[in-house]
Amino acid sequence: MATLELIGFGSTGWGALLLLATLMTLAVTASALAIGAVLGAIISAAKLSGRTSLVALGNVYTTVFRGVPELLIIYLIYFGGSSAVTSIGKAMGYEGFLGLPSFLAGALAVGIISGAYQAEVFRGAYLAISKGELEAASAIGMHRGLRFRRIVIPQVLRFAIPGLGNVWQLSLKDSALISVTGLAELMRTSQVAAGSTRQYFLFFIVGGALYLILTSLSDRVFNGAERRANRSMPTAAMGKA
């Protein structure tokens, strides 16, 4: 009973804070995935462009941000970003330290890492599109923009769903590293609860269970999206042109 009261939603319980921290973890991860999707699309386009300089730039991005430890990138974005903001503030006449918001720094750092992986997911998905579909679209008079909207985007998204599911899981686990910035996400709140109550095993187990629940539910969502995409292959897209 004492353990349930400790974790519960009573006056001495940590349940509400852990729930809010779980929602914060989801918000950071979703924001990071959105940032990564934009960066990944740009980098994959660069790598598929065939232009030597753009391909080299894309290769540097994916190599660096997939090879450097995630925690180091978070430190660079958080502390480096805070230093840059402080310098800008001083140039505008403001005295004192200006810190980059923890949520923004965390989402940006994880998003940059996610973008490196999403770039490869999108590139592989594009290469998986049947060349015959693109040639048939051109043959019936589809201009480049319409072909991209009706054929390329739906097919890329369809082929990318499994890879994006893996990137989401990676970003979800990377969000635990943002605790070093002081953001009250799931890992940080579990640490604070464990330190405040001296119930280390209990709260770290609860935190791990909540992460497991999130990853399990995420698997179901992405598996469902993949099944739906495979049932509704956009083969009729050309007929709608």
Automatic annotation (TrEMBL):
Keywords: Cell inner membrane, Cell membrane, Membrane, Transmembrane, Transmembrane helix, Transport
ABC transmembrane type-1 domain segment(s): 22-222
Annotated localization: Cell inner membrane; Cell membrane
Domain of life of the organism encoding this protein: Bacteria
Ranges annotated as spanning the membrane: 14-42, 54-78, 98-117, 200-218
Keyword match Cell membrane: yes
Membrane topology: Multi-pass membrane protein
InterPro entries in alphabetical order: AA_ABC_transptr_permease_3TM, ABC_transp_permease_HisMQ, MetI-like, MetI-like_sf
Gene Ontology MF terms: transmembrane transporter activity
GO CC annotations, alphabetized: ATP-binding cassette (ABC) transporter complex
Protein family: Belongs to the binding-protein-dependent transport system permease family. HisMQ subfamily.
PANTHER family hit by this protein: ARGININE ABC TRANSPORTER PERMEASE PROTEIN ARTQ, CATIONIC AMINO ACID TRANSPORTER, MEMBRANE COMPONENT
Protein's recorded name: Histidine/lysine/arginine/ornithine transporter subunit membrane component of ABC superfamily
Species name: Rhizobium mesoamericanum STM3625
